[in-house]
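User: Fold both of these, please.

Assistant: Here is the first one.
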Amino acid sequence: MAAAMKGRMLTGRRDGAARPRCLCVGPILMDRLRFGTGGEETLCPGGNGVISSVVLAQRGIRATLLGQVGKDTYGDSIRRLLRSRDVDVSRLLVTSSARTKVAEIRILKDGTWLRRSAEPKLFPYLCEGNLKDESEIRGFCHLHVAGLQGLLRVAPDITLQIIQMCRDRGLTLSFGLTGSRCDQRLVRRAIAIDDVVIGTVLEFDRLLERRTNTHEELHGALRLSSLQNCAVTLGRSGVLVKWRGTVWGRFPAKSVVVRNTLGAGDVFAAVMIAEILKRRSISTALRLGTSAAGGSVARNSWVE
């Protein structure tokens, strides 16, 4: 972690200001969902970047997605969905040098899922053409990095360059962690102590280099961490939050019948960030985020 590095505290727009403008980066792909063994199969645009940018736009944020897709049917479908949900795709480039990544997802009976990549070659979600210079950041107030480890795994240099460029221009930053394997030193290098960081218990254990077996141990690990703003998702148990240096108690989640948990963490994170950017209180942002995530897991896919 860049423990000595301070970012800007995320506070949101001033009252009466225009809709906040947010850059979003994250994995962009097509999910092939299969429910159960030999069950129905459906294609759904996915990836942390796609889900996050769509949800941000739905919550009233002017979201721009950075990245690239292949020049193929799947890439066209992803761009079409983003446009229909009011996401700016002017920075989403189309490449003929690689195919849009497709992931095979099997949804289990309890709503959890198993993923295996259908494409053995790593798809570069970002490229040097996404942000050529700092002038292209003008007018944006925030960068949300969804699926940080997934980006660092396939495009570490460009990802860190974009993060630093946005930080240098005074944007506030938030990060959604993911289970993708990558060099954890790069993850810690990317994050400053005042950034907002959102992820699961396992993802925070890796980030903090601690193994926590209970909520009490997790509470203690967050209290000792230099990170000031964290939201640890606990599934049905809700969210454990540290905000502006103070660890809160557990924030409950609503009870729902779970159909598919894929993308729920991205939905929660995007709603939470959107509401903070709109100057809502952290408790309101958490309440709306957990409610939206609960609604997401009750459907066949996040996009419904």
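And the second sequence with its predicted structure:
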Amino acid sequence: MRFDVSVSLHRGGGVGTACAFVILQVLACLVLEGRVRAEAPPAENTLTAVERQAGWRLLFDGESTRGWRNYRGDALKPAWKVIDGALVLTGRGGGDIVTEDEFEWFELSIDYRIAPGGNSGIMFRVTEDAPAPWHSGPEVQVLDNVAGKDPQRAGWLYGLYPPRNQPMTNTATDATRPAGEWNTITLRVAPEQGEITVNGIRYTTFKIGSDDWNAKVAASKFAAFPQFGKASRGRICLQDHGDEVAYRNIRIRELRPDAPPPDPVDGTLAVGFEPAFPGIAWAGYEPVDDNGRPATFRPVVVTHAGDGSKRIFVVEQHGVIHVIDPAADGGRPATSRVFADLRDRVVYSDKQNEEGLLGLAFHPRFAENGQCFVYYTSKRHDPSTSVVARLVATADRSHIDPAGLDKAEELLVLPQPFWNHNGGTLVFGPDGMLYVALGDGGAGNDPYGHAQNLGTLFGSILRIDVDRRDDGLAYAIPKDNPFVSKPGARGEIWAYGLRNPWRMAFDRVTGLLWAADVGQGMYEEIDIIVKGGNYGWNLREGRHAFGQRGVGARPDLIDPIFEYDHAVGASITGGLVYRGRRVPSLAGRYLYADYVSGKLFALSFDPASGQVTGNHAIPGQKMPVLSWGDDEEGEAYFMIVSSDGQGIFRLVPGHE
């Protein structure tokens, strides 16, 4: 099924815009249906194209025992069988089994299903110069945590490292699902650090050969075996503990000390970037504070007013909105002006760097009514309270009068349980409604289950009408929002099941709403947001079951159109679909980056089929990108933290 989505969008209101939005929503629903069909979850014991690109390979094909044999043997004993795509120990006498291949540094991902009361284990760097594999290879415990026969639980590095409590909440870590259900263990053994993750939740870290490691080995039963943990490489081993256990989706990615795993890209684009405002002086900004300490410049929004002025607005996270006339000074503006100074009401700290002034959106009729909307963490409310407020510019639309700031209207006041996962993006849709991105409230793993709870606004995309008011509200809830009539649900919610959407944007041509959702410990994702969509968090992280309550793919849960794992990067920075003219090779591609790895990418997506058709790298030095933005002409910018205010870049054509 294919259809034309090249509907022209304009920022003004009126019947034409409303009709266009209705058309776009119908198309979005068709895209969603097509994507669910096209992006059906991969079969067990297979790899996606992205996983293959990223260096993963299978150790079990789901059909044969090829690549496995008994410890110190030539074949597998009959008790190990392939049943329904799983490698199953069906009874006693199967013995421990090992891979034919040996591995030094690697990431291993493996699903297990343990029988009630059962016990098994996954060992690594096993050599065959001792009577038993556990004499040489450390073991990740596999156990029925309820009725198992060992006090050390599933996911523990047996005899050495139990799981740590969860940060921020200090709660005990147990992410395992009951006996008879599938669990996923991910084991990373790398020069800098080892790590064990169970169902997406980090259990512990370790470093083989470190003083801490050696002390723990010396205090354990393994001290009796001189070769324990000493081999530089060895086999993966699955343990026979006399109980039924099944394994599937056994895959590995070998790691090199001198190079990271390959990125899941289809090539590199001839695109570059350059300082957008070289040498500019930001009004009121000094690179040192009053105490002589360095003061960083943290731009988090680049946008425009859509009023034909071509002015560029830059939001600095500490609380100032700057405005630039790009035509000033011969096209090289020397200084900015302050459009609004909100520092008296915005709180920001480097120790809590997901707070501050995070969002800015101009009303589609800004030229007429002077309204703009901001999202910030307030110092005038309880700590970690997020506010969405309406500001009104002066008659000439040049700035927000400081004397009038106290009359700013607070539309939403949201006390956050933790300082992180605030979301913060504000965008107007082609329907004239304001969309607000909210994270799940913070900490890790969504401890209060906000994202799946329609009774709270956290973990959601909101859609509100700022031109009307309902009783008791400073806005109206559109009657066509998906949960208006659902008992117990907040009517403002447009979509939910999100962890921390860090930047969303409407495509100027198709009207599709794109969002990047920052992952927990394993995967980063890109989503197309549709009416009533549930994006799975915290039942799923990306396309994977997450935590004790995790589930497989379900028709009511929308998987991302694209994900990448944490070998590529560990904190996605969402961007926008490029619709400018300066860089033709980027036309229609979604721009995004990863803050941790500093990599930049451009994703191609076909709305008609609902499929990603390519993912390309944008070359250049690594950049810890905070955010993306665009100007009135559709040209794209990205932002980084800087100590001199020179952290805003624009994309330009590169060289072949």
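DSSP finds five helices and 39 strands in the chain.
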